[in-house]
Amino acid sequence: MQTSIPNWLMQRAFLTPERIAVYDGQGKKTFMELHESVMKRARQLANTGVRKGDIVAVFMKNSVAMIECIHALHYIGAIVLLQNTRLTSHELAWQLKDSGAVYVIADDELADRIEGNIRVITMSELSALPEENVEFQQYYHFDDIATIMYTSGTTGKPKGVLQTYENHWWSAIGSVLNLGLNENDCWLAAVPFFHISGLSIMMRSVIYGMSMYVMRAFDAKKANELIIGGKVTIMSVVSAMLQKMIADLGERRYPETFRCMLLGGGPAPKPLLEVCKAKGIPVYQTYGMTETASQIATLAPEYSLTKLGSAGKPLFPSQLRIEKDGQVARPYEPGEIVVKGPNVTKGYLHRPDATAKAIRGGWFYTGDIGYIDEDGFLYVLDRRSDLIISGGENVYPAEIEAVLLSHESVEEAGVIGIDDETWGQVPCAFVKRKRGYSVTVEQLKQFCQAHLAKYKIPKQIYFVDELPRNASQKLLRHQLKQLIPNNENGAL
Ligand code: ATP
Ligand code: MG
């Protein structure tokens, strides 16, 4: 039998109509007010012809209007395709075509980036449209696709991840069973809604009846003010955001009211975790991906030093294990991270090949390598596709990058394997120096010698002005090789 539960925002507006759903710095809306504006937008969308089952792209920056559009599409029963606003026109056109979306709702200033044969509805156009009656989905069916989100494309071409209502529901429940919920909680959404880190905040807000504060674009100073002023109690960040906030914070400290800094999206540098501990910032390190509808494992701050660098244990409804050569690995033995749970996707849009490769026997193969210690804590090492095998030893680029990044002159670092006659492959590093610093290749190699086994020390180190990153600001290691100068016969 198909599980259905009442439409989330409608139910929330019925249960706790007066509670504040959303703040944005200019104003606020209760859940009832949000529900009312969502009904209006849904009727305006119906006027443009949007119907149940349509795939409708949303190409917007964080705003209350964006939240309304996503809910409104769900009221109609449409599938929401969330698009990264940093995509180039070409990348966007590819994703829109690949998805089969029929409409795209866009912020006015983003609309001219959309190419191809698709009906574009700008926000100002939508807001001016008359309303047309449309049947609202009173229930959400667990099996139905609520959203589609393309992966960041760090390891290859992005894939459209199908996220069901069930995935979002259980993701929100798994998170709250771990983090708990306070009556005065307000979650700062400074990460984009087009990523699962942001969208999951919106889902939690309506499911829990919790306020959220929407930031259009991340601003470290403003985020610190909101935390220090006691306006927000939880925030989701990636490490680059947290670094900026700490730099802005200076000697100030966060108040007790701030109870969770949820840090995810990629590896967390150890020096950053240590600074947070010293400053009393309650960091919850988390591991997750688009395919797991946000967190699948999270580490509570009480373990942040004893289990330094760990991403914690799986959330209550989920399971996680490490597989090596088809067997469950022993504690500390690295292998592929394999996960299972009601928050895990049922597959990729139009990609039965990729789906069959990733989901086997009910388990999702993440493509990430990690290990579990004797207490069941997960440590993420790296992407399987980026592993370097040097003289039979496994070398994880992320470990070398972390060492390079801990050097005071290094702003960014990327490591790949390059062919070597003796060892098969050897690590090769690309470093962007901080402005005003003049470290040499030799000095960096010496620094690595003090922190890494000999076979992990980069044989070549190149200084570059910029590292290749995708629209999610993730390092594209597979493009690093192109930065090696053609006439190269030694380090620069
Ligand atoms: P693609 O799948 O297209 O290559 P992507 O994997 O970068 O893109 P996302 O779903 O945005 O797309 O990112 C999830 C990935 O981020 C994880 O699979 C993992 O590699 C990395 N990641 C997330 N959390 C952590 C963490 N705590 N430590 C290390 N890596 C992490
Ligand atoms: Mg991925």
From TrEMBL:
Catalysed reaction, written as an equation: 2-succinylbenzoate + ATP + CoA = 2-succinylbenzoyl-CoA + AMP + diphosphate
Pfam families reported for this sequence: AMP-binding, AMP-binding_C
Pathway: Quinol/quinone metabolism; 1,4-dihydroxy-2-naphthoate biosynthesis; 1,4-dihydroxy-2-naphthoate from chorismate: step 5/7; Quinol/quinone metabolism; menaquinone biosynthesis
One example GO MF annotation: ATP binding
Family recorded in the similarity comment: Belongs to the ATP-dependent AMP-binding enzyme family. MenE subfamily.
Domain of life from the UniProt record: Bacteria
Gene: menE
Top EC category: ligase
Organism classification: Bacteria, Bacillati, Bacillota, Bacilli, Bacillales
One GO biological process term: menaquinone biosynthetic process
NCBIfam families: menE, PRK03640.1
Annotated keywords: ATP-binding, Ligase, Menaquinone biosynthesis, Nucleotide-binding
CDD domains given in the database record: OSB_CoA_lg
InterPro entries named among the record's database cross-references: AMP-bd_C, AMP-bd_C_sf, AMP-binding_CS, AMP-dep_synth/lig_dom, ANL_N_sf, MenE
This protein's name: 2-succinylbenzoate--CoA ligase
